[in-house]
Amino acid sequence: MSGRGRIFPNLCNLKLTRQIQNYPGAMNSGVNLKELAAELKLSPSTVSRALNDSYEISAETKKKVISMAEKLNYQPNPFARSLRENKSKTIAVVIPERINNFFAQVIDGIEHITQQHGYHLLVYNTHEDVDKEKKIISLLLNGRADAIVMSVSSQTSDVSHLERLHERGVPLIFFDRICSGIPTTKFITNDYESTFEGTRHLLQQGCKKIAFLMLSKELSITKERLRGYQDAIREAGLESESCLNITCCQNEEKNIELIRDLLLSENRPDGILASVEKLALATYQAVKRTNLRMPDDLKIISFSNMNIAGLLNPSLTTITQPAFTIGEECAKLLIRKLTRPKQPDLLNQVITVPSKITIRSSTVAG
Amino acid sequence: MSGRGRIFPNLCNLKLTRQIQNYPGAMNSGVNLKELAAELKLSPSTVSRALNDSYEISAETKKKVISMAEKLNYQPNPFARSLRENKSKTIAVVIPERINNFFAQVIDGIEHITQQHGYHLLVYNTHEDVDKEKKIISLLLNGRADAIVMSVSSQTSDVSHLERLHERGVPLIFFDRICSGIPTTKFITNDYESTFEGTRHLLQQGCKKIAFLMLSKELSITKERLRGYQDAIREAGLESESCLNITCCQNEEKNIELIRDLLLSENRPDGILASVEKLALATYQAVKRTNLRMPDDLKIISFSNMNIAGLLNPSLTTITQPAFTIGEECAKLLIRKLTRPKQPDLLNQVITVPSKITIRSSTVAG
DNA sequence: TTGTAAGCGTTATCAA
DNA sequence: TTGATAACGCTTACAA
């Protein structure tokens, strides 16, 4: 079926060179090691070694080889190399959502480090769907990526696919939404402390009844953040019944309606802690459908990496994760693991990078 | 500032790993075609053909092979395959900015299509930097990706690197920020008409002096959008001198100051058309540093794919590009090109997908 | 219908 | 210091 991809009939290498020189910029593709070697009247192995700066090759030869390689625009075939060396120079990033500042920043952080080391980034979006996540993971079982950085979907409770991946020996790092059952390194923010502080802040601002908005109880971040919230409520001496845990879904409109109903209910909250950004935004939308005013009738604080939290009305008090740094740290660790020959496995540990709370109008009485 | 967080070592790491390795079903990784064939007492070629559903293989053999492949968890080595077939099943996406709803949506659209066809996505962020763009493109010269979808950086004026890529025969599609000099297919929105309409809308709302905010004059979108704006101004019978073209930069704070100075100047505009979202946001920030009120003193319309344009204060009138669709269309075209054996080259054409204007409070007198 | 063998472009081993 | 050769895992003529 698919014909051999050779573009030039391999007639004579000198001719090839002339062609290249005669048509500057025209189809100077497909020079491989063998052809480059022929042009230099050297063996492929010598040329390979020269290009890889082997100690066995004389400086003079190296110079000649490199200059000819540049002249002919030689580019090593990455697949031949991957096949031979059993590594892809590629890292896979698996996230639940692409239209999300937090994840975008993390990926920027990862790329910032990996690019310096010649790694490429495959990016996959699970759309918060476990089935998609499983498919994606199964695609990564065959060595296409040297390592994986991921944040699990909110649907993920069965983690057998991740266990399998890990057991295969693929270096795997979790960030934000982690899988504590998988013995590897995880990067998170200080979820407990942040929500504890955030809740306390709401209480200090006079809130008597605070609702906690979450995506899914399965999520590691939900659990930790919920804990921080509950402990702060308890610490304030409020009864446990004043805890109001609202589980939202993936459908934005439904979430808005759910929150609106909550806000119109008898026993409505006067404070909200949104455990993820999108639920804060849904709350803003919901409030617009009521007569409530923020922050007077309702105060809100949310995890968020929006750059425009200050432009919302009222401006949003945020718990901001150091997303870029988290990405960088994940990448640094992986690079270390991948580039040292006999590096031990990634430690089963959780590394915490603290978030920063920025108080804005949404929690401060006008 | 963001110091290293606490580390919580988990003690039983080593033990756990060993346990896993002792599990009978675990670590069945690395089963290759040869081993699978040996297990089946068949030749590798037969197994390969069976797995690829070749007509030459009996139904019975196929069944046996497939079931054994599943049992042993056989995963073909993608690099061996890529090397052999001279294709990577990978598409590269090159964008100038990752923390950007428009580009994120486009990538989601691309992924939506390519995933169905078994393609993987390498994503690269140029950070609006031509030099980075050139480096990235040079990395894609060696066949690592079967095709490239890209939007150029705002610094890109010399396009020799893109010409070279195209001449190498790598299928290349531009979207949004295109290179008209490269004879391939481009997807854009109706930039001219949208800005024409947008400007007219501002004029209808009573604006007498409208400023046009742009990133770089080199950008294709800048040129087209500027044209639409200028023509609308002229059509309204205003002098050309009432055109106010403001070239912004990559530094957000500088942009805010630039716009604030503009708003405080003698001859300040009463309307703004922001050719990209970030400049609209910079304008909102700038306005906060003045005593001006929107929309009364200043009306603004902007290209934007923010989902929360309605939550800004005032809510932002937007020109929204069909980003997801654009991504899908790029991908569909590429898939067609890549999967048909002798598909002709991508046509040198510009395909336009219309944007949608949503009028909100930022342009409607209170 | 199945098997044998060549080859994709590298790198590594061994020999010269 | 350099060259010949094998090997990575797969697909596909060609043979049987």
Structural overview:
The structure is a homodimer of 366-residue chains. By secondary structure, chain A is an alpha/beta fold. The first copy, chain A, has three domains: 14-83, 434 Repressor (Amino-terminal Domain) (Orthogonal Bundle); 87-188 and 324-352, 3-Layer(aba) Sandwich (Rossmann fold); 191-320, 3-Layer(aba) Sandwich (Rossmann fold), CATH 3.40.50. Helix content of chain A is 42%, strand content 15%. Chain A has 13 helices and twelve strands. The first copy, chain A, has helices at residues 13-22, 33-40, 44-51, 59-71, 78-85, 101-116, 130-139, 160-167, 191-204, 220-235, 252-264, 277-288, 323-339; strands at residues 90-95, 120-125, 147-150, 172-175, 185-189, 210-214, 244-247, 271-274, 299-303, 317-320, 349-353, 356-358. Chain A has a six-stranded parallel beta sheet, with helices on both faces. In chain A, helix 9 (191-204) runs parallel beside helix 10 (220-235). The longest helix of chain A has 17 residues, at 323-339. Chain A is elongated and about 85 Å long. In chain A, 48% of the residues are buried. Residues 1-28 of chain A have low confidence and may be disordered. Chains A and B meet through helix 5, helix 6, strand 2, helix 12 and strand 11 of A and strand 1, helix 1, helix 5, helix 6 and strand 3 of B. The first copy, chain A, binds a DNA duplex (16 and 16 nucleotides) through residues 1, 4-5, 32-34, 42-46, 48-49, 52, 56-58, 61, 76-77, 79-86.
